[in-house]
Amino acid sequence: MDFDVIVVGSGFAGSVLAERLANVLNKKVLIIEKRNHISGNMYDYEKYGFYIHKYGPHIFHTNNKEVFDYLSQFTEWIPYYHKVLANIDGKKVPLPFNLNTLYRLFPIEYAKKLEKKLIDNFGYGVKIPILKLKEKSKEIEDKDLEYLANYIYEKVFLNYTRKQWDLEPEELMGVTDRVPILISRDDRYFQDKYQVMPKEGYTKMFERMLSSKNIKIMLNTDYKEIVKIDFDEGKVYLFNNEFKGIFIYTGEIDYFFNYKYGKLPYRSLRFKFIELDKKFYLDTATENFPNEYEFTRITEFKHFYKSVNDGNINKTIIVEEYPEKYNEENEPYYPIPKKEYLEIYEKYKKEVSNLNNKFRNIKFYFVGRLAEYRYYNMDKVVERALEVFEEIKEGEKNE
């Protein structure tokens, strides 16, 4: 088969674009995947009537109806509202830190006092980044809010961040925005309109997404084994034949350019899966451990599927999550949002901009967490892929 499109990687970015190009524009698509399975970090498998996420827990949530409707073509959903407990001062308390958390940790009268001050200064039902709370408390010279801000920062955020990133919080850009204080009684970890899990797991959803006869998939293959990119001539060769078409890349951007400006660092994760002879191990799906142990959290997958599995079977599976440095033997999970690393990425980004000028017969698109060196939630990756597809479609019309 002659291919119109090469897609490197079969996670959300690559799979969404492959599906759209194959089914809407009738393109012949080759997906090249270095792992032995499709679906990227969303890969899961069934055991005891629920699904185990090989690369850590993935909970789908979005406010984007277009994204939700698009994925709904390939799966049925079950409702799931994620709840997280954090172990703070010997107590299990809800996260994000909210008004219920106040009453679990502090004497009732002091909790009432703090609640009133939070609502008076910020309003009810809003999310406040921890640094904003710290700044505001100093600005209005409120010792109670300042104490609360420092308490949350030190007990919930500081040590967790050190474990997760092996850096001090002030070295990271934008991370504190992902740890808000929620001024409400809502114990759900997310407040999005759509909060669901794929009824038959993520892998089955990806299988349906990639079922087109126009899509061929090569597993266990590093794309450089079958694709040669001649940067001097401005040509791409697939199986030693010149390729002319669309090239979608979702892998590490520095690897694509042969580490021209050095390697971009990532944080990785190590997972310890434990099978237990009991109905449930945790009170909720996830418990965080900001200040104790080497792992950051424990997740129990059975909770994700309680609405379709009543838990009568006396088996459960948990996973402990250990952050670690990325190397050649593990997986790159999180681009590190540090200024000096983002400056390196900008150099690679300029190289991407030059590709479409140098390669006359190829259109390159770099999409996803690794290719764009930025953190994406699942729905945002799908949203980005759909945007890129529309860009490609418009380009096809104008040719």
UniProtKB/TrEMBL annotation:
What SUPFAM superfamilies would the database entry show?
Answer: FAD-linked reductases, C-terminal domain (SSF54373), Nucleotide-binding domain (SSF51971)
- What EC number(s) does this enzyme carry? 5.4.99.9
User: Which EC main class describes this enzyme?
Assistant: isomerase
Instruction: Enumerate the spans annotated as UDP-galactopyranose mutase C-terminal domain.
Output: 155-375
Instruction: Identify the keywords attached in UniProt to this record, alphabetized.
Output: FAD, Flavoprotein, Isomerase
Belongs to which family? Belongs to the UDP-galactopyranose/dTDP-fucopyranose mutase family.
Provide the protein name. UDP-galactopyranose mutase
Q: Which organism is it from?
A: Methanocaldococcus infernus (strain DSM 11812 / JCM 15783 / ME)
The protein's superkingdom reads: Archaea
What cofactor(s) does the depicted protein rely on?
A: FAD
